[in-house]
Amino acid sequence: MSHTVTGETSDQPAGSNQQRGFFGRIWLFIRQVIGELKKVVAPSRRELVNYVLVVLVFVAFMMLLISLLDLGFGQVAIWLFGNGEQA
Q1: What is the 3-state secondary structure (H, E, C) of 11-76?
Q2: CA atoms within 13 A on the CB side of 86
Q3: Which of 56, 79, 78, 76 has the alpha carbon at shortest distance from 68?
Q4: What are residue 7's phi and psi, to 5 degrees?
Q5: Are 7 and 31 in contact (CB under 8 A)?
Q6: Mean of the pLDDT values across residues 59-79?
Q7: H or E segment at 81?
Q8: Buried b (16+ CB within 10 A) or exposed e, 35-50
Q9: Which of 51, 41, 48, 37 is nearest to 5 (CA)?
Q10: How far apart are CA 87 and CA 81, in angstroms?
Q11: What is the model's pLDDT at position 38?
Q12: What whole-number distance in Å separates Cα of residue 52 and Cα of residue 34?
């Protein structure tokens, strides 16, 4: 008999969580989480540096874009409504 990754055994078919008690379902969940965590592959150092650089460039670009839009909309608002001085 082989052990499956999902934690199901041959004496309990799939979808029979109603037969398990409260703690049995928690234990099944923990086993399934551990099984999924064993599948996780950590990136190499080069990949990690590449991901960090991509995120930093994207964040810098978005900051620049939003700052320019804010400045532009602010100038349009000042042009439309004036700068608060009474005429």
Answers
A1: CCCCCCHHHCCHHHHHHHHHHHHHHHHCCCCCCCHHHHHHHHHHHHHHHHHHHHHHHHHHHHHHHH
A2: 0
A3: 76
A4: 90, 5
A5: yes
A6: 96
A7: helix 45-81
A8: eeeeeeeeeeeeeeee
A9: 37
A10: 12
A11: 95
A12: 27
Residue type, 70: D
| pLDDT digit string, tens, across residues 21-44 | 999 999 999 999 999 999 999 999
From CA 73, how far away is CA 46, in angstroms rounded? 41
Owner of token pair 């150092």: 45
> Do residues 13 and 38 touch, judged by C-beta distance below 8 A?
no
Structure tokens at 12: 């309990």
